Request: fold
Amino acid sequence: MARALFDQEHDLFREAFRKFVQTELVPFHEDWEREQQVSRSAWKAAGARGFLCPTVPEEFGGVGVNRLFSMIIGEELALANCSGPGFPLHSDIVAPYLLNYGTQEQKERYLPLMVTGEKIGAIAMTEPGTGSDLQAIKTKAVLQDDHLMLNGTKMFITNGYMSDLVIVATQIVDPASDGQPKLSLVIVDADADGFTKEKPLNKMGQKAQDTCILNFADVRVPRENILGGEAGIGQGIAMLFGELAWERLLIGIGAVSGAEFCFNEAVSYTKERKAFGRPIANFQDVRFKLADMKTKISVGRAYVDQCMEQLLKGELTPADAAIAKMWCSDMACEVADQAVQMHGGYGYMSEYPVSKAFVDMRAHRIYGGANEIMKELVARSI
Reply:
C-alpha cells in the first residue's frame, strides 16, 4: 500500500540510506555485537553522507529537512535488523534538545560536530532507583560561582559508552538563593574530570548498542552548560515532556518496522521449510497466523503514519504518542514471538536473525517509559 506521507524525494533518500545500511552497517553488525559498540568510523561515515541530524538547520551544518527523513532512518534500521547504531537517539532526541532549548553558543558549539559524527550525543535521565518517574531524579548539581558541582549516577544510557557529550537531567541547587532543588538539564562533556563510564552493560538484546552506567563524582560543569542558560534552571520537566512525545513515536515507528522484519523472515522460512512433504506455509494454521501478523503490522503502520501527520502539523498529543509506543511495541513483540515459533528449534538459535530480532524487540516495551506508564498517560487523557 502506497504511503501518502512520502514523495519522490523521500523515496530517493530511503534508497540511499538503505544502500548505506546494507554496505556500511549490516556486514559489521555481528562484530559490533561482540564488541558491544558500533565503530566510530560508522558514525563518521553516516555523518559524511548526511544521515545524522537531518533536521538540524544549515546554519549549524545540517540540511534542515523535516522529521519524515528521521522516520525513514528509523524504519530502515529496523527493517535491516540493525539495532546497534544509536543514530535516532543522537539525531532525533539529543540534537533537538540543543536546537529547541539551547543557547546560540551551545548550538554553535555542539550541533555541527554532531552532524558530522565527530561528537556522539546521549541523554541521561534514568537512575538506578528512578525509571519513568522523572520527578524522583536525585542527581544533584550545586551552583558555585561560575560552575556547578555535579554528583550522581545514571543507568541504561544509550550511546553512553561512546558519548562525547551527555545532556544530564539533574536537580540544580543554588545555596545562595532558596536552596530548593530545581530539575534542569545540563550539558556534560565526556572529558570532564570526575565523569566516568562503566563498560557496556551485558544486555539480553541490542548487544551492539553501547548502553552503560554513567557516574558523576564532583564533576565541575561550566555554568554556561546549563541547557538554555540561566533561564533553563527549573525547566527540566517542561523540556523533557516537550520531546517525549516524539521519542515515543520513534519507538512506535521502529517497532512496526521491526515487526515487519520478523514477518518477512517468517514468510521466507515457512515457504522453504517442509513438513509432511509440503512447505509449512501451506498449512492453514501457519497461513492464518501470517495473515494475522500482516494485519497487525498494517494497522500499526497506519496509526504511526497518522501520528506522524499530526506531528508535522504540531498537533501530536502525548496520549496519541503513548498509544503508538504502547500498542506498536506490544504488537511487535507478539509478531516476533510468532516468527520464532514458526522457525521451530531454529528460531531459538542465535545465528538465526529472527532470534536476534526477538530479544532486541523486547526493550521497546520498557524504554521511553514502560508500557504500564503509557497506559496511565492514556487513561489520564480520557
About this structure: Residues 270 and 281 are 5 Å apart (CA to CA). The first strand starts at residue 121 and ends at 124.
